Amino acid sequence: MGCLNQALKGLSWAASCRLARQLEAGLHLEVESEPEDIRLLSVLSPEYPSALKELSRRPAGLWVRGRVELHDRRAVAVVGTRSPSPQGLQRTFRLASLLAREQITVVSGLARGVDTAAHQACLEAGGRTLGVVGHGLRHCYPPENRNLMESIGFGGAVLSQFEPDFKPTRWSFPERNRLIAGLSRVSVAMECGPLSGTLSELQWALKLGRVVALPESLVMSQSWARSWADEGKAVVLRRETDVLSLVGEIPAVGDSG
After folding, report:
1. Which of 31, 69, 92, 192 has the greatest CB tally within 10 Å of its CB?
2. In a domain, 215, yes or no
3. What does DSSP say about strands 156-160 and 129-132: parallel, antiparallel, or unpaired?
4. pTM score, two decimals?
5. How many domains is the chain partitioned into structurally?
6. CATH code assigned at 143
């Protein structure tokens, strides 16, 4: 009989998904407690995100600081460039604040720029936010977001598919993007260029059957965004409130279904 912590150590997403299927088929693995406020949620845990349970390929476990709640199934990813314009930051703050007021969880990647603004605006509006990181929860990247990371742990949850001591790498952040997409019903790219890592998250959202939405300002300024809109790959948001209709059919916490 092994330990789930050790079994997950260094696993790729694909290998972790295979382990999840084995767990659901009856494989028994122990879960060791962590000395800090870090918990490992097995795919069998009632707290394991319901949005991920819908996927055919879901990781066997997630390390979490904070709490995942039923309310988090109504989630929108707000992502974008690490170097946004002042207008992009303003739009991000407005959208994240709106989502918070509507009790829709904001998901982002705790990176500089748009991600940071989305988390901060959501917390300031009294909402819930999930921060998905590309490293273990004993680390913080970028380092200046450590206080924000701790605040999210109190007002939502910070999640990682990587063991707590895992240090950030170039490949771990694209893996993180898949988790952001899987946790979110809708992914909104606030501002990004054709070579931005944000496109990785949007591509995963499409592969996972999620909705991709782009502000009209982005569609007007970026040829790739116009192509996505013309091809029907993305919904165009002409105003922030348009996003509400994209998650409106998802029952709120306490509703049936």
Report:
1. 92
2. yes
3. parallel
4. 0.91
5. 1
6. 3.40.50.450
